[in-house]
């Protein structure tokens, strides 16, 4: 947990998912055990992202935190429009985490992508309280993110998690049977995209990931 947030199972929305399917997929996934939802779509403009953030805020209805990928401006605008947006997940090329913290406030949840030892060192050099967790991957090759870094595998993830200054969430090609070994390797949680978003039954897919996450946490 960080800032009272359970990091065990993140759903990152797939930009290949039709917009009319997005609410039902997210609703089912949250009911199935997803603990954080991250809205990610790099193909649409800010106005459409704000609309989707408001839509997901209504669907989630406070059950789990809603984060926006990359776009602090969208998070702020969606809040201004009445949505409950709990924070952001930032990449290495996005605005500095210190700036995001100042704009979003002390209670916001802020994650940062970290693929290398240099990224971990940079995270550790930030003022205390700037970040809540690190997204570390990819675990396996994945088609959901173009030009991703070399796959770490579970052993490679474990090496980074062991020296990371913050809780690490594993992302990238994670399968249900990876959850338990990743948690044993030091993962605070896992993040999943197509394995839930593209499933015939997103709720059942979420439950298959949540079972191992819950078992490792002793819930």
Mean of all residue-level pLDDT scores: 93
Low-confidence segments:
none
Profile the largest sheet: 8 strands, parallel, barrel
Count the beta strands: 8
Q: How many domains is the backbone divided into?
A: 1
Distance between the termini: 13 Å
- What is the H/E order? EHEHEHEHEHEHEHEHH
| Helix content bin | 40-55%
In terms of DSSP E residues, the strand content is: 15-25%
Give me the side-by-side strand order of the main sheet: 1-2-3-4-5-6-7-8
* Reported CATH architecture: Alpha-Beta Barrel
Query: What fold name goes in the CATH topology slot?
Result: TIM Barrel
Keyphrases for this structure?
globular, Thiamine-phosphate synthase, 40% helix, TIM Barrel, magnesium, 219 residues, 9 helices, alpha/beta
Commentary on this structure:
This protein has 219 residues and is an alpha/beta fold. It has one domain: Alpha-Beta Barrel (TIM Barrel). 40% of the residues lie in helices and 16% in strands. It is built from nine helices and eight strands. It has helices at residues 22-32, 46-60, 72-80, 97-104, 117-124, 153-163, 179-184, 194-197, 202-217, and strands at residues 9-12, 36-39, 66-69, 87-90, 109-113, 133-137, 168-171, 187-192. Strands 1-2-3-4-5-6-7-8 form an eight-stranded parallel β-barrel, surrounded by seven helices. 48% of the residues are buried. The model has no long low-confidence stretch (mean pLDDT 93).
């Amino acid at each position: 947990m960080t800032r009272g947030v359970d990091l065990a199972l993140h759903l990152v929305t797939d930009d290949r998912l039709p917009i009319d399917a997005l609410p039902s997929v997210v609703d089912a996934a949250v009911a199935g055990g997803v603990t954080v939802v991250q809205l990610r779509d790099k193909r649409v403009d800010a106005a459409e992202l704000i609309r989707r953030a408001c839509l997901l805020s209504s669907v989630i209805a406070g059950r789990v935190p809603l984060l926006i990928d990359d776009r602090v401006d969208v998070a702020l605008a969606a809040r201004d429009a009445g949505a409950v947006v709990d924070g952001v997940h930032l990449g290495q090329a996005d605005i500095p985490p210190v700036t995001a913290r100042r704009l979003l406030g002390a209670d916001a949840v802020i994650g940062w992508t970290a693929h290398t030892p240099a990224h971990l060192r940079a995270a550790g050099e930030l003022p205390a309280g700037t970040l809540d967790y690190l997204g570390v991957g990819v675990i396996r090759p994945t088609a959901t993110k173009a030009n991703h870094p070399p796959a770490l595998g579970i052993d490679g993830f474990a090496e980074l998690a062991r020296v990371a200054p913050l809780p690490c969430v594993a992302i990238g090609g994670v399968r249900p049977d990876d959850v338990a070994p990743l948690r044993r390797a030091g993962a605070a949680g896992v993040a999943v995209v197509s394995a839930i978003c593209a499933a015939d039954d997103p709720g059942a897919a979420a439950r298959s990931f949540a079972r191992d996450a819950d078992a490792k946490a002793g819930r």
